[in-house]
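Notebook, p. 212. Picked up where the previous page left off. The plan for this session was modest: take the two constructs that came back from the sequencing core last week, fold each one, and keep the raw output in the notebook itself so nobody has to go hunting through shared drives later. Recording the first one now, exactly as returned: residue sequence, then the structure token string.
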Amino acid sequence: MSIPVITRAERVTSARIETRVLFAGPEDGVPVVFVHGNLSAATWWEETMLRLPEGFRAIAPDLRSYGEADPAAKVDATRGLRDLSDDLAALLEALDIPAAHFVGHSLGGAVLWQVLADHASRVLSLTQVCPGAPQGFGAVGPDGGPAYPDNAGAGGGAVNPDLIALMKAGDRGAETPNHMVNVLNTFVWKPPFVPERMEAFLSAALAQHLGQADYPGDAVPSENWPGVAPGKMGPINAMAPIYQDDPLAFTRSGAAAAILWLRGAEDQVVADGSLFDMGTLGSLGAVPGWPGADVMPPQPMITQTEAALAAYEAQGGTVERVVLDACGHSPYLERPEAFDEAFHGFLARQG
């Protein structure tokens, strides 16, 4: 089933992957590349793309393992997020674009930390919308790295199996809290907000590629709590802290791109105490056997990102910070006027 679109969709083949790419705006406009998050696809950005100021060209690819990307293209999690980062650089090469403004949401933002580290010359500016922390996602210890040497508690093994079963069935219902529509309406945006194009966004979420090489990815048994550790395939394993070999590389890359960090004040996904982090769930008693805060505290994701951006500023980078009240994990959907005011103003200041 194809995902409904309101922009222009094309198949683009780069040196690395063939995927669906959405476009809006003039072909000679200043390029802005939008990078979607987990459980979504490029479709989620369409309204934001169409609202860009005159003179900009919006470009939004489906990442590998998502949407209508080539299903044969898999994510090697042992490279961290480099497969996805390198795909974006290859897309610009295929489109004959030397550099672009980049906008990332959630997992897409985590990918952009890697883009800024490895492909800094491609980045005109970086807008990070509720981005994953540079250190990765889930099951960290007091020092911010993996709580255990095998990073037990992070990666694909931490994904709710009931959600996966419902996704495999393509179930669009709302009978249980684990149905996709309820996950989105509870966590991804702040209730009671529901997007006008909910059915299109739901289709994009259910188009996530499923399996041990995709979502949730593979997992390995562990002697450490909660009994499972990240495997080597798929985007969720790629976000595991164990595979982020140099999280702060972008602060030392010589990158000069200005960064806008924009987030919702009531984000439950990327937070100091995310409800998708095993350390948080254990501390709340939702998963029995938690080893305690001295082993696996709730991950301080916002604190980690702030420290990384402070390091970026210390080496000469520019960072702007915007927090939107009464807003969850998707500010560009929930509060479009406030989002555009901050985002468009930031773009204008880049010249």
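Okay, moving on. Second construct, recorded in the same format:
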Amino acid sequence: MSFLEKIIEPRKQIPEERKRFDNSFLKQLIVPLFIEQLLLMVVGMADTMMVTYAGEATVSGVSLDTMFYTIFIFMFTAVGTGGAVIVSQYIGSRDEEKANISASQIFFIALVFSTACMILVLVFGNGIIALLYGAADPDVQEACRVYLRIVAISFPANAVYNAGTALYRSMGKTSTTMKVSIAMNLINIAGNAIGIFVLHAGAAGVAWPTTISWYFAAIVMTALCFNKRHPVYITIKNIFKPNGDMIRRILKVAVPNSIESGLFQAAKVFLGSIIATFGTAQIAANGIGQTIWSVAACVSSSMAPAFVTVIGQCIGAKDTEAADYYLWKMTRITTLLAAVWNILILVLLPVILPLYDISAETRSLLITIVIIHNIFCGSIGALFGPFSAGLRAAGDVKFTMYASIFCTVIFRTALSIVLAVWLNMGVIDIAMAMVSDWTLKAIILVIRQKSGKWLQHQLI
């Protein structure tokens, strides 16, 4: 056993014959997920960089708007994740028929839910922006309105794409989702360049390429999911024939996960409305900072689907000891990768910052909040992020939801108000409140895992 293998192996072992996933499989599962997530984040950075050339008002408006509409994106992802948990468990139990039905029902739920959300935002979007960001400058609000109207049209495509990627990831076929993501992001970034530098379309120049690329990816992933040569596939009959029992199973995971993700993003939106009162420099620093944070966090973000696939299949096979073993092994892998990655981002920061056309004040704030984020993301990122995905894959969805509500919605929001508003300390202390939330959540989740209660649930 090599030194690296010794680092990632948990102290508590299981017999070799019960190790369902060897290191080679885990590598094939994880590497494409990381590349896919990294590409998505880099394109996000490129979007933000290009928008800065349209003016700080535009980048501020887009960043504020993104915090709001991401609530819906998180909920669509939660539906896909809920389905992936169920499909993974059926794969582990070797029940192909129910795996196929559950896969098709993910698409049904995604289509219905996302279409309703699209209509909601198109009808009430302007009023919501006025309510949340009424204190922002008029040109910032206009950028919000333009961007939101366009990206709302992409909601059904985003939800269907997430359903397709969730199905493929539950089968361990992450190289396919990576390739589709590469094509989608190439379309997006090329469209952004045209929209900003050729058409000078501002916020719309970023929004339309995003929408077009999502529809491309949704069509491709849906077509791939009909392939009957795979262990799990979808059919038209099963998509448009609602199965109440399967829908309940999926929603048992998806609803708490959606509430958790939605409230998490809602808290960010609320904090964004506070940040909107701090002035353009702090708004811009926060918006660009969140983009760099996303890149720095892509190890933890990319590992969550891997946790669902691995832990879900162990639970479906009724092997709770293997689930516990792989939970810690995956956590060790994530921690090692996250530490190396976040150090690399900090080293490259002097190269990254000149790419943004921002003021000296914005740059100074940006450096501080990125350093704060990366220190904590690189050390405990595995424990507050993908670790909870592992617990959800075992069916422990309500506890992870309650933990997130307490840590993020209550603790983080309250601490942000005290530090940033009452003490007038701005976006830096918004960042401090964020990492304090992560630390508390990590402690709570580890205590939960040690209790063994996360394994006392049944989804299938």
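Notes on construct two before I forget. The chain has a mean pLDDT of 87.
Flagging for discussion at group meeting.
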